[in-house]
Amino acid sequence: MKVLKAGAAVAVAVALAFTATACGSDKKADTGSDAGSSGAAKKDKIVIGIKFDQPGVGLKTPDGKYAGFDVDVATYVAKELGYAPDQIQFKQAISAERENLISNGDVKFIVASYSINDKRKEKVDFAGPYFLAHQDLLVRADDSSITKPEDLNSKKLCSVTGSTSAQNVKTKLAPKADLQEFPGYSECLTGLENKAVDALTTDNSILAGYAAQDKNKGKFKLVGLSLSNENYGIGLKKGDKDLQTKINAAIKKMEADGAWEAAVKKNFGPANYKNEPAPQITEGS
After folding, report:
1. Is 260 exposed, middle or buried (0-12, 13-18, 19+ CB in 10 A)?
2. How far apart are CA 162 and CA 6, in angstroms?
3. For residues 179 and 167, what is the distance between their CA atoms, to the nearest angstrom?
4. Please, is 1 exposed, middle or buried when counting C-beta atoms within 10 Å of its C-beta (0-12, 13-18, 19+)?
5. What is the distance between the alpha carbons of residues 260 and 257, in angstroms, rounded to a whole number?
6. 3-state DSSP call for residue 233?
7. Is the Cβ–Cβ distance between 34 and 40 less than 8 Å?
8. pTM above 0.90?
């Protein structure tokens, strides 16, 4: 009996040890400001916010993969922070939720056609900029009635909720435009194709990405305006200077080794997009 009891005790001890080991192996994705940015031991995942509906910039494809210039930038920066591509978890960052995702710690940083401006800098910090775009208009290919911003007066203009582009047109350039705001650019594009709206406004990089899609070729055209300068920055938690410095260093390295130019040509080249040179980094300096 004593032998049996001793054997049972050993079995229980082994089972408990195994359970403790299994529980101890669980790790959470890195969304805070310590791991990976402060020299502490890195966790097994990093969560990065991107757009899911912007072809050429940030797109989640039907097979669950991710493509676009911002995806390439995010992947490069993550690599410089010590994360391999399979350690990256991409999270959708719609325009109106970007600041909340950062401040709530849901993401480590955001690379999502995120224009740097003073209002946003009240809530988050930026690294970069890493890209300079210009606001433009996308119209139907057969529409010759819109050649300048003033032509949008009394027409239906579409953009996404939380974007600065539509407000820029509405308040400064075409105050009588009928502004329609939707959660994503894909809804605006559908409305443009169906003639529910007359124009879509946002950065020319985003518009070029949509126009370059195979299913959209010949349907739309860029008007060719430069309504504003949009310096894309990488958004991160306010006060995380260490992470800001490391991301800035990663951006500089990407530009220096040719990876930045290669990513621009790969993602925007099919639309004959004429990009600006890589902008000078100003944030955190």
Report:
1. buried
2. 67
3. 8
4. exposed
5. 8
6. strand
7. yes
8. no
